[in-house]
């Protein structure tokens, strides 16, 4: 008996390039398995696809080893942040306050 197949998209954006792949996977595949089957690991060997955070349409999936894919899902592979956004805003505000104090 032939296993039903569904189509999904897997996307990853590195600093210098982006890749979006349409992948056919067996119905009942997990998100993590679909990402591993996508071949993006070969295009980005620095990625650790077994541990990296994953999401669907901009929402992080808490347990990608359990969550099953659905037809039409766009699975996103997230890379670590280079800087903490809160820290960047704090530094920017401190710099602006310092500039304002010098101009008075």
TrEMBL record:
<comment type="similarity">
    <text>Belongs to the UPF0125 (RnfH) family.</text>
</comment>
<dbReference type="Pfam" id="PF03658">
    <property type="entry name" value="Ub-RnfH"/>
</dbReference>
<dbReference type="InterPro" id="IPR005346">
    <property type="entry name" value="RnfH"/>
</dbReference>
<dbReference type="InterPro" id="IPR037021">
    <property type="entry name" value="RnfH_sf"/>
</dbReference>
<dbReference type="InterPro" id="IPR016155">
    <property type="entry name" value="Mopterin_synth/thiamin_S_b"/>
</dbReference>
<protein>
    <recommendedName>
        <fullName>UPF0125 protein NQF78_17230</fullName>
    </recommendedName>
</protein>
